[in-house]
Amino acid sequence: xxxxxxxxxxxxxxxxxxxxxxxxxxxxxxxxxxxxxxxxxxxxxxxxxxxxxxxxxxxxxxxxxxxxxxxxxxxxxxxxxxxxxxxxxxxxxxxxxxxxx
Length: 101
Fold this sequence. Notes:
Residues 54-85 form the EF-hand domain. The chain is mainly α.
């Protein structure tokens, strides 16, 4: 049985592949594919009031090589930043009480 981290890596790869290529190149996300991925896969983390120009700005931040698409490396770096943000946010929280055994 796969461990949780293995499942998470597989989910990241499969999710990227599910959305990439809908507009042509299966190795990159265009802005529309990225928008759909964010809205459907991270709905509670994507504000519903984001405008098209907000997605364009987000795309330009992720698109480090400025080719107007987000490749898998750029996508993974964005997820790493998201994980870092969550880790930093929660590291100062008081610890949960231990689970009763």
